[in-house]
Design brief:
Elements lengths: L1 H23 L2 H8 L16 E11 L2 E9 L10 E2 L2 E3 L7 H13 L6 E6 L3 E2 L5 E9 L12 E8 L9 E7 L5 E11 L4 E6 H15 L14 H15 L3
Parallel strand pairs: 1-7
Antiparallel strand pairs: 1-2, 1-4, 2-3, 2-8, 5-7, 6-7, 9-10, 10-11
Length: about 250
């Protein structure tokens, strides 16, 4: 009886271990374990440039990962109609890059900060206007329903993160950067079946989507990129410092 009981306990223990392993391997838990390793904290906060942040909002449905994107309103003064992440310039009341990203997301699409689990800040990018843009990556609650500020956002849609590694429609153009390097400008065309229309995702938004897709999914893109795919964050760091050295301070 004792031996049988012990065997039963062993089997029960094995069952609990398997269940725990299964939970650890769930998509959300895997991302929670993975992305904080890439958090740069305040490493670049002393760079003397105007600052902005974008939120890279990840949604998980049936264990598949999606990224939420917005379309800039035609009422805005610049970049109207372009696809981008929720985000904007840092305001005096923002305590850090995360606060900026969360405030902008709430203003633009009604995403409350308590509906976002922030996991990391990636290496920032200096955009064409010499603004230091920090990507903040987080998981959005499944219960979130967008409420658009139509003065800033005209549409919101989601794209499977995998699309930015194995897209149906992708092109790239080469360009000469201010640092003298030749870079690639990526363009994705994604057809949303809910809206029955195509969206073009390009530039900084496309670049960050590729980076996040690689970090989260661990797969290399099916197309050529202009950064070290085995160490993309190191490449981003080099790009940042090279661009900063030539920026208009």
């Amino acid at each position: 009886m004792v031996r049988g009981a012990l065997c039963g306990e062993c089997r029960a223990g094995e069952g609990r271990s398997i269940a725990m392993a299964t939970r650890r391997l769930s998509t959300k838990d895997r991302i929670r374990d993975l992305l904080p390793k890439y958090d740069i904290g305040n490493k670049y906060s002393d760079l003397m440039l105007p600052k902005a942040s974008v939120l890279v909002p990840l949604l998980i449905k049936n264990e598949e990962i999606y990224v939420l994107l917005t379309v800039r309103s035609l009422k805005l003064r610049s970049n109207t109609g372009e696809v981008c992440f929720p985000g904007g310039k840092q305001e005096p009341e923002d305590v850090d890059d995360v606060a900026t990203a969360l405030r902008e997301a709430k203003e633009e699409i009604g995403l409350s900060p308590n509906q976002v689990e922030v996991l990391c800040r990636l290496v920032p990018v200096i955009n064409k206007d010499d603004i230091l843009v920090t990507p903040v990556v987080g998981i959005v609650a499944e219960t979130f329903e967008a409420q658009l500020n139509l003065d800033e956002v005209s549409e919101v849609f989601v794209v499977p993160l995998q699309y930015f590694l194995t897209p149906e429609q992708h092109t790239s153009n080469s360009y000469n950067s201010p640092t003298g390097q030749v870079g690639l400008l990526h363009f994705f065309t994604f057809t949303d079946h809910e809206f029955h229309k195509p969206f073009t995702i390009w530039g900084l938004t496309a670049f960050l989507s590729i980076i996040v897709a690689f970090l989260v999914l661990g797969e290399k893109p099916s197309f050529k990129v202009d950064f070290d795919i085995d160490n993309p964050l190191s490449s981003m760091d080099r790009f940042l410092l090279a661009k900063y050295a030539t920026s208009k301070l």
